[in-house]
Amino acid sequence: MTVVDGLILCGGRGQRMGGRDKGLLLLRGQALVDRALRQLQRWPLRRIQLSANRHLDDYARRGCPVLPDLRPDYPGPLAGIEAGLLASDGERLLVVPCDVPRLPPTLFHALNAALDVGASLAWAADTERDHPGICLIDRAQLPGLRARLDAGERGVARWQRAVGGCAVHFDFAFDNLNDAAALARQEQAWID
């Protein structure tokens, strides 16, 4: 069986959240990182890691390894993925951002199926758009990812397409709470 680890991207500077640490923000009384952790715990992941650059002790209380970026100045989610791949000796890494509080139950198996038939990585898409931050990556992609970061590249979607990744489509609306207004709207509308 393929060994898969998980990684929750918990944010960097929190610029779109007014400087607040996104993963620790509450939705209906529960931190976004805890919602993401609960989602990942339903799948056969060997280990779940947290990518975080601030409030490391708060994240560590969740009992998961906490991985700060290895590069300075908050270079974005690619740097979090780099840290996750380096810390994992699994064959694949499932990556989700903390600001997507609901994931389809079929996500893990559908992304794995894409890699099983030869994709180098696969990301989620719905009827409206791609979600490059929700992806499954073959560990063999690490050297190329590091080279792109060394060259100053920060775009997750550009990297995914450049290495021959593919989108896996879901009949599911991915809620992305990437700013304070979206979080406030979801707080009013949320149904667990």
UniProtKB/TrEMBL annotation:
Record key words, sorted: Cytoplasm, GTP-binding, Magnesium, Metal-binding, Molybdenum cofactor biosynthesis, Nucleotide-binding, Nucleotidyltransferase, Transferase
Catalytic function, reaction form: Mo-molybdopterin + GTP + H(+) = Mo-molybdopterin guanine dinucleotide + diphosphate
Superkingdom of the organism of origin: Bacteria
Compartments reported by the entry: Cytoplasm
Binding of Mg(2+), residues: D99
Enzyme Commission number: 2.7.7.77
Binding-site list for GTP: L9, C10, G11, K22, D69, D99
Domain free text: The N-terminal domain determines nucleotide recognition and specific binding, while the C-terminal domain determines the specific binding to the target protein.
Task performed by this protein: Transfers a GMP moiety from GTP to Mo-molybdopterin (Mo-MPT) cofactor (Moco or molybdenum cofactor) to form Mo-molybdopterin guanine dinucleotide (Mo-MGD) cofactor.
The protein's name in its UniProt record: Molybdenum cofactor guanylyltransferase
Organism of provenance: Chitiniphilus shinanonensis
Encoding gene, per UniProt annotation: mobA
